[in-house]
Amino acid sequence: MRYVQLRAFHNVAIHGGFSRAAEALFLTQPAVSDQVRKLEEEYDVLLFNRNKKQVTLTQAGQQLLEITRRMFDVEQQALDLLSESRALRAGKLRIVADAAHHLLHILAAFRRAYPSVQVSIDAGNTETVITSLHAYEADIGVLGEIPQSSDFEILKLNSTPIIAFASRDYPLAGQETVTFRELANHPLVMRERGSKTRQKLEAMSEQCGVPLTPLIEAEGREAVREIVAAGGGVGFVSSAEFGQDSRLVPIRIDAPEMLMDEALICLRERSNGKLVNAFFDVARQLVPSPA
């Protein structure tokens, strides 16, 4: 087994094809194809299903990809260690967040400290965040719970209650509080089932004997916000994420408090990466110490 063969396989797998892998490696497509073919022949294993223009991983290929993700990530960490100042001057940090709102002040401080580092932020629910970190598709995650797994390095950002909200001209808009029983009589707009906010809300309403069923299910927090703003019903969000929107009014839920513990997380095995460590250091300086 040669390094170049594993590198060719890894790039075909993550880029989804031989042509894109060749572009990423600055090689010709035949050269990449040849390296993968030699790897498959040497170990008598099929790593890719080749159906016309579509290339997909076999089960063996998926298992090997899990290993090469770790392998090449460790290689990148070694490079970062050997060229620390360069990594902090021109690296790339990938973040996936259930709500970027919690990151704004941290991100601003990080950008001031490391202005040349490229930062990408993708949106996703709790399940997406966890999956992206495990798949090495993101370096840092932000999610609305404290994960119990020992796989993660965790920094708690805040803890705020779940509230309801409606458009200013909606019938409930004039109320300061609303009960589960009242909510059950209105069209409810909720996020997809992977949303931790929805899970906590449904669990508490069932515990109180008034199950809540959404009339509209929307993918993502912004979609819920726009539907509610248009008068489509009542939505739910943590108070920290409600923000400023003149079209909407917050309504406190008259029930046992449902707290969303927002946390900054990364895989423990990647916590010593230069960019990840630098971002966490900036965050620790800005997050209030627990009482």
From TrEMBL:
Q: Which residues form the HTH lysR-type domain?
A: 1-58
Where does the secretion signal sit in this chain? none
What SUPFAM superfamilies does the record tag this protein with?
Periplasmic binding protein-like II, Winged helix' DNA-binding domain
Record CDD domains? PBP2_LTTR_substrate
Q: Which GO terms describe its molecular function?
A: DNA-binding transcription factor activity; transcription cis-regulatory region binding
Q: Cross-referenced Pfam families, in alphabetical order?
A: HTH_1, LysR_substrate
Q: Which keywords has UniProt assigned to this entry?
A: DNA-binding, Transcription, Transcription regulation
Q: Which family does it belong to?
A: Belongs to the LysR transcriptional regulatory family.
Protein name, entry field: Aminoethylphosphonate catabolism LysR family transcriptional regulator
Q: Which organism is it from?
A: Shinella granuli
